């Protein structure tokens, strides 16, 4: 269950925060639950995911270092292909997407 937090609190809690636009990594983050969200005067702003010790912020108004759109789309497309492969059972698809997510994190965090 995610809790409401402030952007300032998240900035103070993580040294590495990366921002991804709304729904740009929906397949890559499939099965990963956000730990928190922020909202502003216009409502929901973004969700926060902690993965491999870093924070990914995604939404209408995310915070952090911008991740290259083409890189996100490349990994999200691969995740979609994995999730669409019904020759594999659910757990195998989930494990493959999780491995892909770790590879993505390693690439953006270097």
* Shape designation: globular
Strand ordering within the main sheet: 1-3-4-5-2-6
Class from helix and strand fractions: alpha/beta
Mean pLDDT: 96
- Gap between N and C termini, in Å? 30 Å
Helix and strand sequence: EHEEEEEHH
Largest sheet descriptor: 6 strands, mixed
Total number of strands:
6
By DSSP (H or I, 4+ residues per run), the number of helices equals 3
- Uncertain residue segments: none
Radius of gyration: 14 Å
> How many distinct domains?
1
User: What share of residues are in beta strands?
Assistant: 25-35%
How are the secondary structure elements laid out?
Layout: E1 3-4, H1 7-13, E2 17-21, E3 36-40, E4 43-51, E5 54-59, E6 65-66, H2 69-83, H3 90-108
Parallel strand pairs: 1-3, 2-5, 2-6
Antiparallel strand pairs: 3-4, 4-5
Task: Kindly describe this structure.
The protein is 37% helix and 26% strand. It starts with a strand and ends with a helix. It is built from three helices and six strands. Helix 2 (69-83) packs antiparallel against helix 3. By secondary structure, it is of the alpha/beta class. The protein has a six-stranded mixed sheet with strand order 1-3-4-5-2-6. A hairpin with a 2-residue loop joins strand 4 (43-51) and strand 5. It has one domain.
Based on the model shown, name its key terms.
single chain, about 110 residues, alpha/beta, 6-stranded mixed sheet, 3 helices, globular
């Amino acid at each position: 269950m995610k809790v409401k937090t402030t952007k300032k609190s998240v900035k103070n809690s993580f040294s590495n925060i990366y921002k991804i636009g709304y729904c740009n990594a929906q397949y890559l983050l499939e099965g990963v639950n956000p730990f928190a969200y922020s909202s502003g005067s216009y409502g929901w702003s973004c969700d926060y995911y902690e993965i491999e010790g870093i924070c990914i912020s995604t939404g209408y108004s995310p915070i952090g270092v911008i991740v290259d759109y083409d890189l996100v789309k490349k990994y999200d497309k691969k995740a979609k292909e994995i999730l669409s492969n019904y020759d594999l059972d659910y757990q195998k698809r989930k494990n493959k997407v999780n491995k892909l997510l770790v590879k993505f994190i390693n690439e953006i965090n270097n």
